[in-house]
Give the backbone structure.
Amino acid sequence: MLKQESYILIAFGIFAGIIGAVYWFWGHEDSGGVMLVGAILLGLMPGLYYYYWYRRSGGQRPEDRPDATVADGAGTVDAFPSTSIWPFVLGSGCFFFVLALVFGIWLLVPGLSLVLAAFIGATAESRRGGSV
Amino acid sequence: MTDLIERHDIESSDDHGDHGVSHHDHHGPSGLLKWLTSTDHKVIGINYTVTSVLMLILGGALAEIIRAQLVSPTSTLVSFAQYNQLFTMHGSIMIYLFAGPFAFAGLANYMVPLQIGAPDMAFPRLNALSYWLYLGGTISMVLGFFATGGPAAFGWVGYAPLTSAVNAPGVGPDLWIGALMLTGFSAIFSGVNLVATIFYLRAPGMTLFRMPIFTWNMLVTGLLILLAFPVLTAALVMLYCDRHFGTHIFEVQGGGVPILWQHMFWFWGHPEVYILALPFFGMVSEVIPVFSKKPMFGYKGMVFATMTIAALSLGVWAHHMFTTGAVLLPFFSIMSLLIAVPTGIKIFNWIGTMWKGQVEYTSSMLFAIGFVITFLIGGITGIYLASPPLDFFTHDTYFVVAHFHSVVMALVIGAMAGIYFWGPKITGYKLHEGWGKAQFWFLFIGTQVFTFPGYWLGLKGMARRMAVYPNNPSWQTLNDWSTIGAIMIGISTLFFIINLLVSWRKPIPAGDNPWDANALEWFTTSPPPHHNFLSLPPVRSERPTWDYYHPEHPALGHGDHVSGHAEQKVSN
Amino acid sequence: MTSRRAALLAVIAPLVLAGCQLPSFGAYHGITKGGTQSYELWQGFSVIAAVVGGGTFLLILWAALRYRRRGDTIPRQTQYNVPLEVIYTIVPILIVIGLFAATVVVENQVLSEPTPKATVNITAFQWGWKFVYPGENVVVIGQTTQNPTMVVPEGVNVKMNLVSSDVVHGFYVPALNFSRFAQPGLNNTFTFNFDKTGTFKGQCTQLCGLYHSLMYFQLQVVTPTQYRTWLKANALTPAQAAAAAAASANQINAGIPVKPAQTSYGVN
C-alpha cells in the first residue's frame, strides 16, 4: 500500500535536496537555504513514513491494484460525520482571535471561549460516536 | 451524526438508473442550521465557490474604479491614498480570496471526492473548519474598508518596511494580516485534506495513474500548499510582531533585514502562482477531452509535466527579486526558464487532444480554448521576465502587470470553463448556452484589449501602481484602450449574472451525464446523493464513465491500431 | 577568451547580428553598452517568442477550427504518440538553453563594473531622490513637485551607489533599459558608460507609499567638459555639502541650504 504515493513524496524531497544543495553552495544565502530544508523535510518525512508502512505491510489495497474490481473493495469504507456544529464554533473562535489581534485583547474572551467550547464539543462528539 | 459508508459494485446494487431513491434517507437539520453544521464536501464546495465568486465580483468592481482613474493622466476620481488602497485590496481579494479558494477549495472540494469515487473528503470536519476560517478571513479583509484610516495600502505583496507600524499605521493593515493568517490556515487544512483524500479514499482499481488530470493537479496543488503556505503564515506572524511587539525582524533600525520579507513572501508567492494555476490546468484538462470526444492526449506526460512544474517551483521564487541586486541571478533564471518546458508540454497536449477529434463548441469548450490561448500569451511574455537583463527594464512596470493579468485572466476564463462544465453536475441544471457564449466573447476579447496596451505601456516606462502620469500624457491612448477592455470584462460579468438568473428562472434539466463525459463524477446523479455514490463501475482507465458507456472505444496506446470501431455512432 | 565564452558568444552572435535589422518590438534602444545589448537580447527573445508563440497559436486555432464537430462519429481514441511527445519536450529544452546562454552573456555585460571615473551616491526617500557627488561638494535633492536632475558625463564609467533611507524604492530609467531596487540597509552598485547625451526621464517603480506616482527624476547625460562646468557651478561649501549629504527628507522640507536642480516640467 501507498508505494507510489511514498515514491512521489520521496522524489519531491530528493529534488528539493538537489535544488537546496545547488542553491546553498552557489548562492550562500541563508533564508532560502532554510526554507529549502523545510521543503526537503516536507517530502521526506511523510514519504519515508509511507515507505515504512509499505515495506511493513507489503500488501496492496484495492485502489493500488489495476485489476481490482469494486467487489474487492466492497464493504464499509469508513465512518464519516454528516453534520457537526463544532467546526463553525472553532472557526468563529479563530475569527474573534484575529479580531483580538487587531482591535484589542478583550476580544480574546469570546475567542478563547469559543475555541475551548469547540475543543470540548468536538472531542465529546467523537467519543459519543459523533452524535451532535 | 456519523454515517457508516458502504461501497457497492454496479452489478450487486439494485439498479443503476434507480438513483432517485436513496437508502441514505437523511433527517438532519435544515435551513440555516444545515448550512452551519454541514460537513458534506459538496455543501462546503458550493459555499467556497459562491463566496469566492462574490469576491471575484467585488475585486472586479475595484479594478473598474482603478481603470476609470487611469483614463486621463491627471484624473482626480480617487485620491492617491484611495488609489493605493484600491489596488491593494483588488490584488489581495483576487489572489487570497478568489483565485486560490475558488481553485483548490471550491470546485476541488466538490469534484475530487467524486472523481476518485470517495464518499467525502478524508477529514470532513476539518474541511468545514477550512471554510469557516476562509469566511472569517474574507470578513476581516472586507472589514478593512470600514476601518479608520482605510484598508491596507501597501500593495498585495506588502514589501517591508512599508508595512511597518510607522509607515502603515492603523487597523487596516492589521486586518489584512489577520485575514491572510485565517485564509492561510484555511488553505493549509484544505491541502492536508486533498492529499489525504487522494491517498486514502480512491475507489478500487483507481490507481494513481488512473486518476483524472484534475485530481492529479489537485494532489500536486495540495503538496504545494503544504510547502508554501506555512512560510507565508510565519512571515505574517513576524510582521505582526514587528508592528506590535517591538521586534525588528524586517526593520533596519534594530538590525533587521527588510529583504527577508521578500524572500519569504515569494517563497510562498511563486508556488502560489502554481497553486492558482494547476487547478485551472486540471479543469481545462477535463473539459477539452470531453468536448473533443477523445482521451487526454499524453496523459502520463501531462502528469509528469504537472509534477515537474511543482518541483521546479521550489527554485524560482527570487525571479521576483532580480532587481534587488541581492539574489543569484543565473540560478533563478534557468529554473524559471525551465518552467516553460512542462508548461509547453501541457499546451501541446491540449492541442493533441483536440487534433482529429470532434470539437464541440459548447460554452465550456470555448472558455477552455480561450484559456489556452490567453495562457499562451501570459506564458510567452513570462519567458522574457525569466531573463534578468530583460526583467531589469520591465520589472514593476505595466509589462509585468499585463503579463500576470494575462495569466490570471486566463485562470478566470478557465474558472468559467469549470463552472459551465460542472454546473449541471452541481445543480442538476445546465446554464444557458447563448448567454454563456456572449459572456465568453466579451470576456475573451475584453481580456486581450485590456492586457495588450499594458505590455506596450510597460515598455514605454509606465511603472506599476501610479495613480497619475502627468509627465507622460502620451500614455493616455493606450490606457484608455486598456480601460475599454476592462469595461468589456465587466459587461461579461453582467452576462454571467444574467445567465445565472435566466437559468434559474427557466431551468434546463441536465441529467446524470449531459456531456457524455469521462470521469467518475458523471456516473452518479446530478446533484449527487449524500455521500455521492450508490454504486460504482469498474475502474479500468482514467475514464471509467466513458468506458462504461462506450466499452467499444477504449483509449489507444502508442502504436495501437484497433480498427473497425472508429465509425460507430455516439451511443447516448 | 575561454572556449566556453566563445561558445556562448556563438549562440548569441546570430541574435545580435540579426538585431540590426529587426524591429524594436516596443523596447528602447538603450544609451549604454549594456542597455543596447539588453535591447538586442529583447529582439532575440521577441523573434523566438513570435515564432514559437505564433506557431502554437496557429496550431490551437487549426485544431479547434479544422476538427470542429461534424457528426456523431466517435474519433479514434488516440492517447499517446511517444516520438511526438519527446520532440516537444526536447525542442523547448534546447530553446531554453539557448535563451539562457544569451541571457548570461548579456547579464555579465550589464552587471560588469569596470573602474569608475565618476561616482554618484543615490539615496531614495519618501518621495524623492538625493544625488551626492562625493569629493565634488555637489548635492542634488528634489522631491515630488520639484524633480531632481542627475547630471552625468558621457563616455566614462560612472559608478552609482544606490540605497534607500526608508522603504523600498525602484530606480528606473526606461531609456537605460535598467532598473534597480533602492533598499534600506542594502547598498547596490552598478556602473554605466553612457554613449549618448540628452535628458531622460526616470521614476520610482516600487510602491513606496502615498506619493509614489510623483517620484520622478531626470537623468541628464552631458559631455565631460560640460560635466566639469556643471560641477563647478553647483559646488557648495564643504560644510554645506556635508550637511546636505546627511540631510533626511524632513530636513529638506525644513530648508537645509541645498540648491535643488530646476525641473523642465513640474507636477500639478
Remarks:
- The first strand of chain C starts at residue 118 and ends at 125.
